[in-house]
């Protein structure tokens, strides 16, 4: 456990450094966002539909753009994230935009210790579960925080993508699809600004689809659907080609890039 605490500390330090870089990046379109543009992608908008009047918990919210986008749509939102710099900026944006979301800095696995209320919707997206060593406590927390009849939704990069090492610019298959051992990466730059001189130091874990689904089922959730798609909403992997719909694909694509799961608590 002490070793894992160090992993989380290193990851937190890295994410704290990323916040300012990401907030100024083209990818996060901060000025357009402040002017009213949603940061949400088509998959999550379609999956959750009209959220007006519903309570929503956003797990691993970074600096809160998606949380605040849901808030603009009428949801009563709480966002949690490991990065105190991320939460600090999220609170500033919430105040500046005159919205009513709440933001709490904590490890996502400890959410129930910091957020006692239950929610109609729990939401998380793109690049989240790879920071967690074990999905069972994550799923248990989700079940604890959902109201009966509540909905959990995740859209996430496909686990096949994390079998590759991208550090040298060319994908090289290196890691197991379900890898229990921690993976350490150290590289210059960040996905939102690859020319940045910051050094990212990151500990992560690979989780196959069966692990995700079974963790949710074991925690008492009923899976409504699991879908896989051959596209990414973000240009964050090497040599992607933008499609007419704005999404990105690989040149000779042989596997999915994202998956989504919708589940409910009975």
Automatic annotation (TrEMBL):
Q: Which InterPro entries match?
A: Methyltransf_11
UniProt KW Methyltransferase keyword: yes
- Any keyword Oxidoreductase? no
Q: Which GO terms describe its biological process?
A: methylation
Q: Which residue positions does the secretion signal occupy?
A: none
Positions of the Methyltransferase type domain: 58-154
Q: Which GO terms describe its molecular function?
A: S-adenosylmethionine-dependent methyltransferase activity
Question: Keyword set for this entry?
Answer: Methyltransferase, Transferase
Q: What is this protein called?
A: Class I SAM-dependent methyltransferase
Protein's organism = Winogradskyella luteola
